[in-house]
Structure formats: structure tokens, C-alpha cells
Write a structure and sequence with these properties.
Number of helices: 11
Number of domains: 1
Largest sheet: none
Helix content: 55-70%
Structural class: mainly alpha
Distance between the termini: 24 Å
């Protein structure tokens, strides 16, 4: 689902750039030609693409939230370090989905109550993910096993098969905040060290950019208010524009030229903002997915994993309850897409 959100996100960004730079003022695929914002009924291309992205994010609000709560509060003392690492990497991928959604979707705040609910749940998922990462520091039993062991270590086993609780440290009230601050200070060289530092670097970068994206969405929410004939958002935006296009001594500047420069600068910065947001999500997904696959591959060939009656790896069975639930929940994206197309 995250890969789908990323692919659709890139397509949407390319489409937005095409409309702004190549086909500006054209009529290709403009279903809303000549209609004010509040009277639009037919979906645009961006509406269709962004509905898929936001649906991927909504679907993972539930699956990611379920995994986060289960590991953090109910099964954290029972799972192995191996499964703990897979779950935390999966939660990083979930956070990447929410990052892509809030970055790409232009109408994320179209329905403020729904958007606030999404943001609140996403904040909880980020917090729980940070708490899970902060506890992977190591105790008197040794450092938390994070790296994929070499093949020759399979004969004597690995600490990965021990309970994760054996290596976890308790995180106090300020533990997460302190850990994030430390990682921000060491962010420059975190990627070169690998292991926990690399994971923390991905998490901190996502957290910072997600915060920026939420603020950017708030600005876009205010800006979209100018499409209405009357309202506080329209008055606020016009007041800011009047202030920005006048000099300090009261002499009015050439408004058209200044507005044109501001618009070009805004489009350039906004395009860079979209690309950076998608790039961060892509890096997180690639690093996390490769780590999960390498870890599962080593455990599969280690000889320590109990096989089923057919002699196969039980983690590769697709028909189990834990596999079918997220697979079938992916159908929500299809339902959301069909509802949007049919309803509009």
C-alpha cells in the first residue's frame, strides 16, 4: 500500500507540474472549466489520484495503529527481537505512507474534522513508533540485536531469537523527547553508522518533515478559502497579499511584477517541497523493506525457524488470519476510489 501511495504520489506531482509549467491555462482534462470551487462536481485527475493516496493512508491508520498498540502495550514482552525489528520497520513504512499523504494531497484539510482526526491518530502512531525505537538501546544482556547476522553465525544461533524485552530499556516521561533531540544533533553522520542510528535518522527526518507538511497544509487550507465569495480565510489572504505587495513607506510597488515573482518563487519552492517529501518517503520504504527482507531471509535459512507440516516457512503462508486481514483491508482503497467516481 505504501508503494502504491508513492507511485500515485509521483504521478500526481508530475501532473501538477505539467499543469503549472506546460499546460498552464490549457483545457486538457479540465472538468471544472469556468466553475467556482464550491460548485465543482466532476472529479479532476488530481482528485482521483489523491483519493487513492489518502485511502492508502487511512487504511494504514488502522493496521499500523493495531500493530503499534499490540507491540507497545500488550505483546511487547512476548515477541522476539527478530519480530520486534520487523514490526518497528513496518511502522516506519506506515509513517512514510502518512507523510506522503499529507505532502501530496492538496485537499487534505477539505474536511477539517476528518483531517484533525487523521492528524491526531498519526501523531499517536509516530509517538508509539518513537517509543518502540527508543527502547531498542540494550541492557545488561547486551546491545539490542539489530544487524542481520552473517550466514556463518546461523550454526550457533543469534540473540535475534531471544525475547525483545531482554534488551529493552525503560523509556521515561522525557525519554523520547531527549532521544529525538540527540538524534537531531547527530543527524549528519547517522546514516554512516547503520543499525539503530540509521533507523533513528529515518524516523527523525520523517517526523520533522511531517510537521512541516502539516503546517504547509494549513497554509494551503487558508489559501483555498479565497475561492469563496466571502469568509474569514478570503479576508485574511487578501490582507496578507496587500501587505506583501506594498513597501514600508507606504509607496505601492509594481504589484503585477512583484506578484509574478512571488508566484514563480512559490511554485518552485512548492515543487521542491513535494519532491523532497516523496523522496524521504521513498528512502524510508527502500531502506526498511530491504532490511525486513534481509532479516527474514537470514532467519529462513538459519535452520532455527520451526517449519510447518509441509516443511515450509510458516511466515510465507498467505492464508493465515494475520496475513489476510491487511490484504483484504487493501480493498478499501478500491472501494474509496469507486465511491468517489460514482458519487461525483
Amino acid at each position: 500500500m505504501t508503494s502504491l501511495a508513492l507511485i500515485i504520489g509521483y504521478v500526481d506531482v508530475v501532473w501538477q507540474l505539467y499543469k503549472s509549467l506546460v499546460k498552464k491555462g490549457g483545457s486538457v482534462w479540465r472538468f471544472h472549466e469556468g466553475k467556482p470551487l464550491e460548485e465543482r462536481t466532476n472529479p479532476s485527475v488530481s482528485d482521483i489520484l489523491e483519493t487513492i493516496v489518502i485511502s492508502c493512508s487511512d487504511q494504514q491508520l488502522f493496521t499500523g495503529g493495531a500493530y503499534a498498540l499490540t507491540v507497545r502495550y500488550f505483546k511487547g514482552c512476548a515477541v522476539s527481537a527478530y519480530h520486534y525489528n520487523i514490526l518497528t520497520s513496518g511502522l516506519l513504512i506506515t509513517c512514510a505512507t502518512h507523510l506522503v499523504a499529507v505532502t501530496v494531497v492538496m485537499n487534505y484539510w477539505r474536511y477539517p474534522i476528518m483531517a484533525c482526526l487523521r492528524v491526531a491518530i498519526t501523531v499517536l502512531i509516530f509517538i508509539v513508533t518513537g517509543l518502540l525505537l527508543a527502547k531498542r538501546t540494550g541492557t545488561s544482556n547486551g546491545a539490542f540485536p539489530l544487524a542481520v547476522p552473517p550466514p556463518e553465525d546461523a550454526a550457533r544461533g543469534s540473540p535475534l531469537f531471544m525475547r525483545a524485552a531482554c534488551f529493552e530499556t525503560e523509556v521515561g516521561a522525557t525519554g523520547l523527547t531527549k532521544e529525538v533531540q540527540d538524534q537531531v544533533r547527530r543527524l549528519g553522520d547517522a546514516f554512516t553508522r547503520g543499525g539503530a542510528n540509521q533507523t533513528w535518522a529515518l524516523y527523525v527526518v520523517m517526523l520533522l518533515w511531517w510537521s512541516i507538511a502539516v503546517l504547509a497544509e494549513a497554509v494551503r487550507f487558508l489559501r483555498r478559502g479565497t475561492g469563496k465569495a466571502a469568509g474569514r480565510r478570503r479576508q485574511l489572504v487578501h490582507r496578507v497579499r496587500s501587505w506583501a505587495t506594498a513597501s514600508g513607506d507606504g509607496v505601492e510597488l509594481p504589484r503585477k511584477r512583484l506578484v509574478r515573482v512571488c508566484r514563480v518563487t512559490f511554485h518552485a519552492l512548492f515543487s521542491l517541497y513535494l519532491v523532497i517529501g516523496l523522496g524521504i518517503g521513498t528512502v524510508v520504504v527502500i531502506f526498511s523493506a530491504l532490511y525486513i527482507q534481509d532479516l527474514r531471509r537470514w532467519v529462513d535459512t538459519s535452520g532455527w525457524l520451526a517449519r510447518n507440516e509441509a516443511g515450509e516457512n510458516p511466515e510465507n503462508e498467505v492464508t493465515t488470519f494475520g496475513q489476510l486481514v491487511p490484504i483484504l483491508m487493501a480493498a478499501l482503497t478500491v472501494f474509496a476510489f469507486m465511491q468517489m467516481v460514482s458519487g461525483e
